[in-house]
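Might you be able to check the backbone structure tokens below? Thank you kindly.
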Amino acid sequence: MLSTPATFEPLIRPQAADAPRTFVFHRGELLLNNATLGLPAPAIVAALPIAPERIHALGLWEGVYYQLAWLDAPLAPDAEHGYHGLRALFGVLDDGFLGLAGRAFQLAEWARTHRYCGVCATPMAQLQGERCYKCQNCGMMAYPRISPAMMVLIRKGDQVLLAMHTNSPYKRYTALAGFVEAGESIEEAVHREVYEEVGLRVHNLQYFASQSWPFPHSLMIAFTADYLEGEIRLDDSEIADARWFGPGDEWPESPVVVSIAARLLAAHKPG
């Protein structure tokens, strides 16, 4: 599952390092060596036109210092390097490396989208020793954005409910999911989303696990729940199809293996 390696030590203050490894992003794509799919060598990164204020500390992993940076244009130093979407790297690169890349991308997007104050348009300045930009004019502060989202697998006897989300990049059956709205608890969001998307009522919510999901800055919080009442009624704008899967049914193709959805479904597969 996509997650930060246990041996990773996060850092906020930049450190001096002889050979720092740098995650260089242009929007949602990461600069890599096309042949090895590894990070560009320090000398390659040093030759790129990256302003010092666009370089941020990430942390230490296996004795190596990692940092992140971002560019306005997809500048590649040569034909041997190019930009690659993180989704395309699922199942290709080490999950620990992808976990770091996802963390770095979220911080790069925070830095890129908070160059100016959203209140008065004054250039922002990063506070020392803190992941925070502050406006020197009006005092508005901006921390990295995290958008919580619920995921729930509904059980009904020996069956589970799976749905195909209308706007998902993967046309596969999976658990229900949706973002938490302002003023809601995560449990309230589960009940609301289930009723809105498929017209069912549930109870006995049980926490399963959580996962950072950098597309672009979500925190997925997964639950199981038991069916209480109702018949399936689809919200066509959100759900293309939803149905119960039992022990005798053909199990659908698994979601992306690095996602918490795959782990949730595997743990509760009927039979």
User: Anything to note?
Assistant: The radius of gyration is 21 Å. The chain has a mean pLDDT of 95. The chain is about 15% helix and 35% strand.
